[in-house]
Specification:
mainly alpha, 26 helices, elongated
Amino acid sequence: MQASTSTPSQPGGQSLYDALADWARTDGLVWIYLLKAIAAALLALGIAMKLDLPQPRTAMTTVFIVMQPQSGPVFAKSFYRICGTLVGLVVMLALIGLFAQQPELFIVSTALWVGLCTAGAARNRNFRSYGFVLAGYTAALIGIPASQHPDGAFMSAMTRVCEISIGILSSGFVSAVVFPQYTGALLRSTVRRRFSSFVDYVSAVLAGRIDRSHVEATNARFVADVVGLEANRSTAVFESPDARMRSGRLARLNTEFMTASTRFHALHQLMNRLHAEGSSATVEALEPYFHEIAPLFAKAGEPVLTAADAAHVSKQLEDYRATLPRRVRATRDALEAQGDARLLDFDTATELFYRFVHEMTEYTATYASLAVDTHSREKWISRYVPKTNLIAAGVSGLRAAIVMTLLGAFWIATAWPSGTNLVLNAAATCALASASPQPARMASQMAMGTVLASFVGMILTFGVFPHIDGFVMLCVVLAPALALGVFLTTRPKYAGLGVGYCIFLCFLAGPDNVVQYNPSGYINDALALVASMAVSAAAFAVLLPPSTPWLRRRLLADLRGGAVQACRARLKGLRNRFESGARDLMFQLAAIAGNDEAQRRDTLRWLFSTLEVGNAALDLRDELATLPAHPQYAAGTTWRIAVDATLEAVSALFERPSEARYRGALASTDVAIAASQAVLQGMFRPEATGAAQRGDTPPREERHQLQRIQSHLHFIRTALIDPQSPLAAYAGSAGAHPGASQGANHAS
C-alpha cells in the first residue's frame, strides 16, 4: 500500500516543481522587479529624509525614472543620468545668472535648451539618448523653481542634485544586490539563439523548405535582433569585467552577422531570379554546392549551439572554402563546354556563394571566440552606427521648445502658483514621450496615470498620513500604492499609464521632511501636471506627428540614401555604416508601421533592394580601387567611364526613383557589362583591342578581378529587374526583357 501511494505522488510533486519553476521564470521575475523597485524607492526616501534634504520625494521619483528589470540598464541609465544632471545643472545656473530678472528671456532660453536636448535625444540611441533627455529635463527641474528665488538658486540646485544622486545610488544598489538580473545572461542567450536560428534558416532556404512570407518575417526578426543586441551590449559593459572583455567581439559578431545575412539574402534572391528566367543549366550546376552547406553546421551529426563547439564549424567552413575555387573552375569549364549555360549568371552566383561562405566563416569564428575570456578578435574598431533623420530630430526639438514657450507664456500671463510645475513637467513629458514610437499615445497614457495618481495621492496625503507615525508605517502605507504603478509598467500595453502614475504619485504625495497639508495647492499642482501632459499629447498629435506619412517618406528616403552613399561616399568604414544604418532605419520604420502589414512589407522590400544594390556597388568599388596600375585599368578608359556612369545612374535612381532614371540605370548597366566583357575578352586576344596591348599574358588574378567586376555589374542589373523589387513600379517596358544582356555571356 505504501508503495502504491508513493508512486503517483512523485509525478504530482514533479508537476508542482515544474509549475513553480515556470512561474519563477515568468511572472516570478515581475514580482521580484516590483519588490526591488519599491524597496529602492523607500530606501532613497529614507536616506534623503535622514539627511534632512528639503524634497526627499525627488529621490524617490528618480528611482522610478531609472529602475529597470536588469542591472545593466540601471547602471547605464544612472551613469548617463548623472552626466545629464551635471550638464543641466551647469547650463541652468548660467541661465539663471543671465536672466534672473527677465522671466520672458529665461523661459525662452530654457525652452530652447530643452528643445536642443530633445533633438539630441532623438538623434542618438540607447542610453546616450537618455543623457540628452536628462540634460534638458534637469535644467527645467532645477532651474524653473530656483528662478523664483535667484538668491538661493545655487543651494537649491545643489540639494536637488544630491536628491537625484541618492535615487540613482539606491536604484543601483538594490538592483545589484537583491536578486540581480544581468543583461550579460540575456546577451549570451540572444547570441546563441540568433546563431542557431540563422543556421536553421540558411539550411531551410538552401533546401527549398521556406516560402517568401517566412523569409520576410525571419529577416524582420533578424533586424530587431541586430538593434536589440547592440542595445544590450552597450548596457552590459556597465555590469561586469567579463562583459567588457567581450564587448569588442560582440560588436564584431553583430557586424559580421549583418554582412553574412545580407550576402545570403542576395544569393537567395539571385537564385530565385535564375529559376524564374529558366536558367536551368546554371541552377542545376549550383545546387550540389548548396546541399553541402547544411552538414558543415553540425558536429558529429548534432547541431552546434554553443560557442565552444562553434570552432569546429569554423574549421569545417574554412576547409570547405579552400576547395571551392578549384571545384568551381571545373564546373564552369563543364558548363562552357556544353554551350547552353549563361556563364555570367554562373559567375555571379558563385561569387556571391564564395563571399557568403567567407562571411559565415568569419561570423562563426567570432562566435567561437566568445568561449574564452581574451581573444585576438576582440581588437575590433568598427561599431554599430545608428541612423536618424536630422529633420525628424529637429522637429522633436522644435515641438518641445514650442510647448514649453506656450506654457511659459501662459504661466507669466496668469501668475498661476503652480505654473512652475506646468512648465517643468511639460519638459519632462516631451523628453520621455519623444523616445516612444507613439509619443501622443504615451503622453496621453501618462496623463491618465497622473489623474489616477492624483486621486490616490489625495487619499494618502489627507486621509492616511495624518494618522500614522514613523518611517516604518510610512513604508507600509506607500508600498501598496506604489506597487500598482510598478505592476502597470511591466505590462507593455499600460506602460505609459504606469510611468505617469509612479513618477507623479511620488511628486504629489511623496512626503517631505516638512509635510504641508494644503488641499488647494495640491489640486493646483495636480491640474498643472495633467494640463502639461494634455498639451504635450496635443502637440505630438498636431505638430508634425511622428506617425504621419511625412516621417515615413523621410525615413524611406534615408534608407534609399544608403545605396546612394554606397555609390558615392568614401570607402573607408562605409560598409559598416551602410549595413547598420539600413537596419536602424528599418527598425524605426517598423515601429512607425505598427500592425500595418502592407507598410511593413513595403519597407522590407526597400530594405532588401537597398542592401542588395548597395553591397554590390561597394564590392564593385572595392575591386576598382585595387586594380593594378596599368593603362588598361586607368580611370579614363572607356570601360571605367561606363562603370562610373553606372554607379552614378544607380545612385540617382535611389536618390529619387522615377521611370526615366530607372531606364537610365538599366541602360548604363548594360553598357558597363558589355564594356567590361570586351576588356576581359581582349585579355585572351590582345590584338583585338588597342587598350589591351600588354606584350604578355595578364595574370590569372587580374582576369578573375575583371570577372568579379562583371559579376557585380550583372547582379546590380538582376536586382533592378527583379519583379519583387519596389523598383519594379518604375520599370514600365524597360524591364520587359530580363535576358537582354545575356547574349554576350556565351562568348565569355
